[in-house]
Amino acid sequence: MGKTTAQKIFDAHRLDEPSKGIEVIKLDAVFCHEITTPTAIVDLVERGKDRVFDPTKIKAVIDHVTPAKDSLTAEQGKVLRDWANRHGIKDFFDIGRNGVCHAIFPEKGFARPGYTIIMGDSHTCTHGAFGAFAAGVGTTDLEVGILKGICSFKSPKTIRIRLTGNPGKEVTPKDIILHIIGNLGVNGATDHVIEFTGPVIGAMSMEGRMTVCNMAIEAGATCGICYPDMTTVNYLWPFIKDEFDSKEKALESYSEFLPDTDAAYARDLEMDLSSLTPLITYGYKPDHVKTVREMTGEKVNQVYIGSCTNGRIEDLRAAAAVLKGRKIADSVRVIVSPATPDVYKQALAEGLIEIFMNAGCCLTNPTCGACLGMSNGVLAAGEVCVSTTNRNFNGRMGKGGMVHLASPATAAATAVKGEITTADQL
Amino acid sequence: MKNFSGKALFLDRSDINTDEIIPAKYLTEITKKAMGPHLLEDLKMDGFDPATDLKDIKVIITRENFGCGSSREHAPWALEVNDINLVIAPNFARIFRQNMYNCGMMAVEIDADTIDQLFKKFSAKSADVKTDFDARKFIISADGEETVLDFSISGFDESLVKAGGWVEFADTNY
Ligand code: SF4
Questions:
Q1: Is A368 in the pocket of ligand 1 (CB under 6 A)?
Q2: Using CB atoms, which residue from A18, A19, A374 is nearest to B25?
Q3: Cβ-based neighbours of A344, under 8 Å, separated by 6 or more
Q4: What is the pTM of this model?
Q5: Residues with Cβ < 8 Å from A294, sequence gap 6 or more?
Q6: Average model confidence (pLDDT) across chain A
Q7: Those residues with Cβ within 8 angstroms of residue B47's Cβ, 6 or more apart along the chain or in another chain
């Protein structure tokens, strides 16, 4: 029987198999942010194990609450900063150079095909867009990752989803992943890796693939994976050009991790997206999905455009295309948070920031901010927000608030109307 | 080894996420103890009041996909500081399950039909779970009724429970 991508990556990184079906693998990168890493650092210090396995393989950023909003968050930033300094972790992105982890780390070329990556953050599955095995973990796994450069996982089982058909141009990667989650359910891929493939993925940019893989965890998946192709190589080329003689050579090398034609899948699905229309969530779980048309007319108080799901340049372009020459409704406030400084600069250069400001949006620095209800746009009880983020859990953006997840285009159109709508209904 | 026996709480809902177990606003706390009073604070469920229903609870019995969502290990910690070290469900979100064993706690999978029977038989009563770790048995009882359930965990998970967690185990063995 052939092997899946995840099985091939595990084969190349296996250190031990302590029980049948459980593997300890070596890590190529450990990513860190200031919410989950400080507890790991404090615990390592208390245990007398304040060491790191390899400072060049650890990447750290302050992103969740930045700049600090109070003494507690200032302390979290300080613990991370001091630790990065004392261990010589060069790739540490402090305030001013920081962005949302799952946007800035790929932008710096830290995610590569065939890599194994962990982070104390469930949306680490985003980096599978590069053909890596990337998984969110808790604090203890993070501690051991930092200390030893290893992590334990169950031997990976994989669901393959082939995305086919010709979705209309109003259908974005966000709509596609909402459709997939709606189909699988929030428990549908638990303990599985999802390989996203087919012509729809082939035609998608890296930004779009990251949006899709980002929400794999919302179906319970350990990781979402897209196969490396020329799109991947082109994106990574500035970082890998010294490693390979040509892009073709790079692609050839990365092909090592493509699944075998007779690979064993736990489930093998095909989804034809030809009749898909823009989607939005209606309840408190990411699989509570309806078409935007079914929700049309519902009043909203806030629109949020940003996050590791949809805060990249293509997302801002899509939102700006809708907002250009328009004003947001008087009854809403709109918060736009470019996910990284480079995204922000690019948006400035392209005139997108001006479009947002002329429309009446509030621009924030790159941060997670309101996505997890910690700063920069927390909802009051009873308020409704259409958001380009990835979680609509009860209380996620503020106690008693309601979050509807949608694409940047839908979010921008909703901002103009003050009620839920698709861009083509404007 | 931690304590895995005592009074059980039945939570009759699937997909209880870690935001419901411990809301994000407490993630700025650096100590585990600070999580204590906020366990399940945002869980909205008919007939459940975290302020009163968690008293003396040592074991949680619940439905599918417990612990989904955010990777925060604060969720097991919030349980741990309340002396709840065992959750029994048909299945768990991967990260939550791993976090439990990494802390030397247990997330044990029992098939959905059996869980359903437990709900029918015991959820309306004040039930007790006695865990016989070596025999791999749970003895669940209330009002003179008793159900004995076999469970299994992997040898690796057993080592983590016995070592008190993954950090010590990994640093010693790898
Ligand atoms: S943007 Fe939201 S989902 Fe993404 S890492 Fe930040 S808090 Fe998590």
A1: yes
A2: A374
A3: A338, A353, A365, A366
A4: 0.95
A5: none
A6: 97
A7: none
